[in-house]
Amino acid sequence: MVRLPLTPGEVERGQRLGALLRRARAERSMLETALDAGVSPETLRKIESGRVATPAFPTIAAIADVLGLSLDVVWAEINQPERDVEQARRDGRERLAS
């Protein structure tokens, strides 16, 4: 099977997803988070670094669940224009703090 190259938009969404997961994970260890989500630490590392820009939905759902993120928040952040990213980061920090 030949994989088509990712579009710049897909790469950007993958980077936003990784940044969101890193922020949500905060001080929690990558190993603990990955094991609790049922994924390998290497998979989580690749997603967080943006190297896996289009991870499988069940993988993201499991990680989001472990981190206490709603899938609506994840979807909203990764699909917004770049200028809205900083506002979502502030909103996400406020949600995580409460």
UniProtKB/TrEMBL annotation:
It comes from the Bacteria. InterPro entries: Cro/C1-type_HTH, Lambda_DNA-bd_dom_sf. SUPFAM superfamilies: lambda repressor-like DNA-binding domains. PROSITE patterns: HTH_CROC1 (PS50943). SMART domains: HTH_XRE. One of its GO terms (molecular function) is DNA binding. Pfam families: HTH_31. Residues 21-74 form the HTH cro/C1-type domain. This is Transcriptional regulator.
